[in-house]
Amino acid sequence: MQALAIRPGGRYIDGTLGGGGHAIEILRVSAPDGTLLALDADAAAITRARGRFESEGFNARVTLVHSSFADLLRVAHEHGFDAVDGIALDLGFSSDQLAEEARGFSFTSGVLDMRFDMTRGQPASALVNELSIQELADVLYRYGEERASRRIARAIVAARPIQSAQQLAEVVARGAGGRRGKIHPATRTFQALRIAVNDELGALESVLPQAVELLRPGGRLAVITFHSLEDRIAKHFFRTESHDCICPSDQPVCSCGHRATLRVITAKPIEPSADEVAVNPRARSAKLRVVERL
User: What CATH class has 97-198?
Assistant: First the structure.
């Protein structure tokens, strides 16, 4: 809330509603007349959050939309949020999704889906059971940074058909050669498949310039990432948009005509304290980066 500089009467967007935690707090701090547009690609998240907003008495000040944040600009214009004071993006997936057996995000799930929006796209089972060894290995290496990608891909193809997330986790564990430290050997594989199924990196690359366009001068964008691939995209975009010239350093005269649109608020990302990680272990890899519209 401090990073977004929430104020009473402000107009805000939460592009990743999830359990509604950030949204509820934005509405509390912006009381009595602040307004919020909240999006989520998961229709179940919208339904759950609507009940929370009702119990808090916030219904009149929040607009809920079932949509990916990749369509942020269109959704914002459709609902009258043409210029806003702050935008929050808390990337990845939620604890509610992890706990839901029908989604396939956990290692013990009976299904293998992993889609945020269950009405669109192909489930993870399609990738696992249809891609070639090389295609699977490429997905695991690119999106999971999995060094044993080829070995795991061969194990997956040999075990087909794979029907459940639990079965996949077991196959990957055998293919990877067992547990490595405290992290389950299937962690990077599940991350890679989830990112691929939902085009998470493509959506992030798409939403960042849209967010800048929607911010008023002085408005802020706060992005929470959970792995290096996301953080790298946000960091590079913020660095580029905070400089006037982006020509190669060895070019003597500027020819790009680029003008800075952002001021970086967090020179280094804000990370959770040891106390916060003790309370919420899933926060351990989170990084918060904040910028302000010029």
Answer: mainly alpha
User: How many whole angstroms separate alpha carbon 120 and alpha carbon 70?
Assistant: 14
Over 70: is that where the pLDDT of 180 sits? no
pLDDT-based confidence at residue 178 (cuts at 50, 70, 90): low
How many residues are recorded in the chain?
A: 294
Alpha-carbon distance of 24 to 208, in angstroms, equals 23
CB-count burial class (<10 Å; 0-12, 13-18, 19+) for 230: buried
List pLDDT tens digits, range 58-110.
999 999 999 999 999 999 999 999 999 999 999 987 777 776 777 778 888 88
CATH number for the region 11-90+200-293 comes to 3.40.50.150
The pTM of this model reads 0.93
β 62-66/262-264 pair status:
unpaired
How do residues 229-284 score in pLDDT, each as one tens digit? 999 999 999 999 999 988 988 888 899 989 999 999 999 999 999 999 999 998 99
Reported as a single tens digit per residue, the pLDDT across 16-25 is: 999 999 999 9
279 vs 294: CA distance, rounded Å: 37
| Measured distance CA(121)–CA(197) in Å, rounded | 7
User: Which residue type, as a one-letter code, is found at position 142?
Assistant: R
Q: Is the separation of the CB atoms in 37 and 16 below 8 Å?
A: no
Closest residue by Cα to residue 170 from 158, 185, 180, 182: 185
Hey, which residues does 263 pair with through a beta bridge? 292
Side-chain half-sphere CA neighbours of 68 within 13 A: 20
Query: In angstroms, what CA-CA distances link 230 with 159, 205, 210, 289?
Result: 31, 9, 17, 11
In angstroms, the first-to-last Cα distance of the chain is 20
Residue 179 has pLDDT above 70, yes or no: no
